[in-house]
Design a protein that fits this description.
The structure is a homodimer of 318-residue chains.
Chain A lengths: L1 E8 L3 E8 L5 E8 L7 H12 L4 E9 L2 E3 L4 E4 L7 E3 L1 H6 L6 E5 H12 L8 E6 L3 E7 L2 E2 L30 H5 L1 H13 L14 H9 L3 H25 L3 E5 L1 H21 L10 E4 L6 H14 L3 H4 L1
Parallel strand pairs in A: 1-4, 4-8, 9-12, 12-13
Antiparallel strand pairs in A: 1-2, 2-3, 5-6, 6-7, 9-10, 10-11
Helix pairs in contact in A: 3-9, 5-7, 6-7, 6-8, 7-8
């Protein structure tokens, strides 16, 4: 049997799955931690691929990678959470082991492709996908194609400035939407407000987690409620910017914060989106919804990339 | 001879031109004011088309319109500067006179298409066009296609929020880049600062024009210098947002402010773009340049729309 091998390579986990080329049925799937004392991430990736694909013939490999890539050259320009993957010739290193076509993409971009091909975005020609978790990432489908730009660096929605001189972002710049509305941004704001003397049930905790904040908000803690409203307010402004540019018919949210605290964020987000948009025509028939693919979105995105390359019509049949 | 009829319908002028279908040579061209005491804009447009095309056979008509359009339906949703053009069935009204295919697009979107086909953007698959004049408009080419979105409302770059609670925009919202860095935004800031007692050579003038401000800046007036630097600073932030999303290989500026005061704005714009971008990879080989088509960009955009429809290969030959 011929299989497609797909992998989602993140800072925490490496996932690998094998799908039958002719039916797109799942054949095998495994995940392991990315970090290990004795092995480099590339060694772990290669051995996991071999483990997942014991007997079959590999037709092609695709990888969703948490980083900036030169997809055509197969080089990881920067993957902040994967040790040593800076200007890293990932494709060449894999080709030394597997003499098959290898494709790769940024994980959030491929998540957009996954939702479009297999998930909540089926049938939408213009789609925006945003993942709100530790950081904020995203991807877009424009006219039935993945938005990549000149060098494949497009679709970087998390680093949109919404508040010049605002909080410091993980990237070192200020006021990006990721610095305000991501899990990290939400936690930082809570810590900052508590250290400035704001009263909150959370100030009793030694270490605050995202779960603590969402629980506190549901129990009526005013600081916790405020931080989600603030996250939603700025997210709505950012969304209006994206919608003015891309005019999508669907916006899909993924990521831990969106799934665990979406109800605390989305109302103020929708209000602020409505207040920031220049014409209601942009919002008529615009769906705002959650990811359907959950944890599998990276693998499915890599699979979508292969399907697009090798059997664009297959997906219509299954 | 068969001709393409193209028109640029703005709030001030209606331009119409006829181009030979087989060679794309200009056959005839005229312009008239949009407003008139005795005629509606549609009457003026129809009579100008008849005047420009006295003898030839019209193969198709395309219009670049200053407004939000439902291009597929041929309806002008809103054209703030053209009297009566709200939910206006422009295509049907023209088809009553001319039984030929009729196409239309937003003027700034078509300007992007024009620069891509005929102007500064030839050969670039991912292009951003921005016009900085009374307002700020724009358009983008993504993977060799005009960025339109689900309803053709995409590419609305001027209403990107860069400063929440910032100055009021012409659209009624606050803090859009148009409210800060357009000619209108620049003038308003100068007037505001003068009324707050800021000293400037401009305060002696009864009525201040854009030309007055750029002259004052060139003569060393500190308020005039500041207002352009401020415009450039926020324009750079907006550009970084656009570049993160679209990753273009060229940004083309058109419009009166860009051409008359570009030198006063662009340095601070480039600095702020550089300071706001998350990776220098976005700026490597990114050209930032001026429009090559000037006043003709609307007509050329409408022509590009027809060429794309009817003779996509012709353009490579001429």
């Amino acid at each position: 049997m011929d299989v497609f091998i797909v992998s989602d390579v993140g800072g925490t986990q490496i996932r690998v799955a094998a799908y039958a080329v002719d039916s797109l049925e799942l054949v095998n799937q495994k995940k392991i931690p990315t970090k290990s004392k004795n092995q480099l991430p590339i060694e772990r990736l290669i051995s996991l691929i071999k483990e997942v694909n014991a007997d079959s013939s590999i037709k092609a490999i695709a990888l969703a990678v948490a980083g900036y890539l030169d997809s055509d050259a197969g080089i990881v320009i920067e993957a902040p959470n994967i040790r040593g993957w800076n200007n890293y010739p990932l494709k060449d290193l894999l080709n030394n082991e597997f003499s098959v076509p290898i494709f790769m993409g940024n994980d959030a971009n491929l998540a957009a492709l996954a939702e479009w091909k297999f998930g909540a975005g089926i049938g939408h020609s213009n789609l925006l996908y945003l993942t709100v978790s530790t950081g904020i990432g995203g991807g877009a489908i424009v006219n039935n194609q993945l938005l990549l730009g000149a060098k494949g660096l497009g679709g970087e929605f998390g680093h949109t400035t919404v508040l010049p001189d605002g909080p410091l972002c993980g990237c070192g710049k200020h006021g990006h939407i990721e610095a305000i509305s991501s899990g990290t941004g939400i936690l930082k704001y809570v810590q900052e407000q508590i250290s400035q003397g704001k009263s909150s049930s959370l100030s009793a905790l030694e270490k605050i987690s995202g779960k603590d904040i969402s629980q506190a908000a549901r129990q009526g803690d005013s600081l916790a409620i405020e931080v989600y409203q603030r996250a939603g307010f700025f997210l709505g402004i950012a969304l209006a910017n994206f919608v003015h540019i891309l005019n999508p018919s669907i916006i899909i949210f993924g990521g831990g914060v969106a799934s665990s605290a979406g109800d605390l964020i989305f109302e103020s987000m929708r209000n602020s989106l409505q207040n920031s948009i220049i014409s209601p025509a942009y919002l008529d028939n615009l769906s705002i919804t959650n990811s359907r693919l959950g944890d599998e979105v990276g693998l499915k995105g890599a699979l979508a990339l292969l399907v697009t390359q090798f059997s664009p019509n297959l997906i219509e049949q299954i």
